[in-house]
Amino acid sequence: MPMQTALQYPHAGHAVPGAIVQKRAIAFIDVPTRFKKGQTVFSEGSAALHFYEVVSGTVRTSQLLKDGRRQIDAFHLKGDLFGFEASALHRVGAEVVEDATLRIYQRSQLERMLAEDAEFAQRVVAAMMHAIERAQSHMLLLGRKSALERIATFLLDMSGRLSEMSHLDLPMSRSDIADHLGLTIETVSRTLTQLERKGVIELPSHRRSIVLRDRIALRRLDA
């Protein structure tokens, strides 16, 4: 019978009770660890000793500007890998948007993991390519798109990542959306209301629920 233990991680609320340690041929441990909503996974400027995989929940990565404003560069959802850095320090911080379970991998083992686990290597490469793609799209969005276009792009992206269904239950707040899109929260609310009046979306009573009524109209704005 395999030995059971729990991985203790300094930023985690608690380890998964009785989690089974999975030891692969490359001798690293990936025990799913729970984080509570609002909890810090790692801080901007902290040592980049680990990278992470989202098993469930949502994590945001962001930077604080000198004047205190926050820029959210990405939302990481189920299956996403994040926390890779070119330097020894994290250039962004990571916080949990909703209760999340993460796998925590040692950065020092990355080269060995890539060399000895072809499937994992493919996932890492795919994650990095998606990150580059999203960063390029985000740069274009912030630099050239109007508020209406930014919201349309965001809704279509979240629809593709969360579900292909028309009903979206967004895990992030409107404040998070604003800080991701480079808008004020008032502009986000006003733009969503504008799209609802045009019949493009519907805003149920729950503030984080959005129904996409006209994807074609959204795609025209996203073009």
Brief overview:
Mean pLDDT is 85; it is low at 1-27. This protein has helices at 110-116, 118-144, 147-162, 174-181, 185-197, 215-222; strands spanning 14-15, 33-35, 40-42, 50-64, 70-76, 81-82, 93-106, 167-169, 201-202, 209-212. By secondary structure, it is an alpha+beta fold.
Distinctive features:
single chain; 223 residues; alpha+beta; Arc Repressor Mutant, subunit A; seven-stranded antiparallel sheet; 10 strands; 35% helix; disordered N terminus
The CATH topology of the largest domain comes to Jelly Rolls
Low-confidence stretches: 1-27
What is the rounded Rg? 19 Å
Tally the structural domains: 2
Q: Write the element-wise H/E pattern from the N-terminal end onward.
A: EEEEEEEHHHEHHEEH
Q: First CA to last CA: what distance?
A: 56 Å
- Major beta-sheet overview: 7 strands, antiparallel
Indicate the percent of residues in helices. 25-40%
Alpha-beta content class: alpha+beta
CATH hierarchy class name of the largest domain: Mainly Beta
Q: What fraction of residues sit in β-strands?
A: 15-25%
Pfam families: cNMP_binding (PF00027), HTH_Crp_2 (PF13545)
Domain HTH crp-type: 145-216
Keywords: DNA-binding, Transcription, Transcription regulation
Protein name: Helix-turn-helix domain-containing protein
